[in-house]
Write a structure and sequence with these properties.
Layout: H1 9-20, E1 67-70, E2 78-80, E3 83-84, E4 88-90, E5 93-95, E6 103-105, E7 112-119, E8 134-138, E9 142-146, E10 181-188, E11 191-192, E12 198-200, E13 203-208, E14 211-218, E15 240-242, E16 250-258
Antiparallel strand pairs: 1-16, 2-3, 2-6, 4-5, 5-16, 6-15, 7-10, 7-16, 8-9, 8-15, 10-13, 11-12, 13-14
Length: 266
């Protein structure tokens, strides 16, 4: 989608580099609907940093009814456009290959629970959005940001775990570069009426290393860079997409479970 920041990553990285010389963030972007902040507002306060507890579990087996999207061996469940996914697979994880393009699941999903683990490169290189940058796109449209923010300041709605360009996380719960982070994401897609009007916005709950970052928070629309894209009617299903932003971010232990409905009496 052209309005997404991932469609032209090289241009966006260059643009971001230019603006960061004047500060971390922007002051010439549109207003975020329902908020007092502009998109990537450099005046927006960053969330407090916390140290994750020891209660979250990495590499735990997937539930019996989950679909495993990556088992540490291959990218058979993924594609890059109409081609095979070409990211590097080794030692139980896969890694972004610069220039390899975004990858997405071959299968589309409606509402779901997603578990995914990621690690930023070590030693770290770059700063702000140019350091350990990737993203998890739900339905291929709504981004939960992946970023190395360890001693690395960036604009608040671009923090790790942020709903990119819309909502900063409640807290920042990242671990050091090279260590593994976990995201547990519960996503409910949008609904539309016959005329294409949104009757239910997409919403998400994100738990990062055991800490709640968002709870059933609504997306104002698909994710964009320096803009606020609007909802356009679709069938309310889509792939999980991972971003090639040029940094060798690693991923492992990815599984997904569809969310059904409660039993209802006839």
């Amino acid at each position: 989608m052209k309005i997404s920041r991932i469609a032209v990553p090289s241009l966006l990285v260059a643009a971001a580099t230019a603006v960061f010389a004047a500060g971390v963030g922007y002051d010439n972007t549109p207003q975020i609907p329902g908020q007092k902040w502009k998109v990537h507002d450099k005046a927006r306060p960053n969330p407090p940093v916390i140290t994750p507890g020891a209660t979250f579990s990495h590499l735990a087996p997937a539930p019996s009814d989950a679909k495993v999207l990556f088992d540490g061996k291959n990218l058979d469940a993924w594609k890059s456009g109409n081609k095979e996914a070409k990211w590097k697979v080794e030692n139980g994880y896969f890694e972004v290959v610069k220039g390899g393009g975004d990858i997405e699941t071959k299968e589309k999903f409606a509402d779901f629970q997603l578990h995914i683990e990621w690690a930023s490169p070590t030693p770290p290189k770059g700063d702000s959005q140019g350091r350990g940058n990737s993203g998890v796109f739900l339905h291929g449209l709504y981004e939960v940001q992946v970023l190395d923010v360890y001693k690395n300041k960036t604009y608040a709605d671009g923090q790790a775990g942020g709903l990119y360009g819309q909502w900063a996380p409640l807290v920042e719960a990242s671990v050091k570069p090279g260590e593994w982070n976990s995201y547990d994401i519960i996503f409910e897609g949008p609904r539309f009426d016959d005329a294409g009007t949104v009757t239910r916005k997409a919403s998400v709950t994100v738990i990062h290393n055991g800490a709640v970052l968002h709870h059933r928070q609504e997306f104002t629309g698909p994710s964009g860079h320096q803009n606020v894209p609007k909802y356009v009617k679709y069938d309310s299903t889509g792939p999980i997409r991972l971003q090639d932003h040029g940094d060798p971010v690693r991923f492992r232990n990815i599984w997904i479970r569809p969310i059904g409905t409660y039993d209802r009496p006839e």
